[in-house]
Amino acid sequence: xxxxxxxxxxxxxxxxxxxxxxxxxxxxxxxxxxxxxxxxxxxxxxxxxxxxxxxxxxxxxxxxxxxxxxxxxxxxxxxxxxxxxxxxxxxxxxxxxxxxxxxxxxxxxxxxxxxxxxxxxxxxxxxxxxxxxxxxxxxxxxxxxxxxxxxxxxxxxxxxxxxxxxxxxxxxxxxxxxxxxxxxxxxxxxxxxxxxxxxxxxxxxxxxxxxxxxxxxxxxxxxxxxxxxxxxx
Length: 233
Description:
Elements: E1 16-24, E2 27-34, E3 37-42, E4 45-49, H1 54-65, E5 73-78, H2 84-90, E6 95-102, H3 105-112, H4 120-124, E7 128-132, H5 135-140, E8 147-152, H6 172-181, E9 182-192, H7 197-207, E10 211-219, E11 222-232
Parallel strand pairs: 5-6, 5-8, 6-7, 8-9
Antiparallel strand pairs: 1-2, 2-3, 3-4, 9-11, 10-11
């Protein structure tokens, strides 16, 4: 949504209360409260919650560690989700601007109205710029070398799509556009619910390098592994 880390999980806990919902051309987006936590679902599929936020935070921290610039870092985040990636990005004092692209305007409205209090401070930070739209179109409209870091967290990964149109994000054409908007020594990171050899090969073909980081995660009684794919220009 572009949707975020946790998307690969499929599990149910307790009784839920509907906090907010919206129906768009892509389907239904729902914010639930379950066992004291907030949970985001798209078309009935679990996307993420406010309990298991490790991968959202690692997406930001691992990528920013690779950033060469010592100040004035410009970050583009594809997918707002529940805001934990954004919050982690803003915790880095080098970050001058965080440009967040979210395809679902209702999700942004829920954040702005205070329905997701754990990340409310991040939403209000003066360094944040929001764009409502598709990440492929927004990146395609950016000037060359306009960002030092791209964090793409827009679906479950290439093999577990919530929106079929998001398949373009994992292909060479779009990755080449990402390379053009990256500043020298810039870094791009893509989150996936599973390993993705074809994505890794595509990133290596475009950037000449790709590191895959496996992240073990416990979701209640279930254990799974999420993956980050990082390439540098």
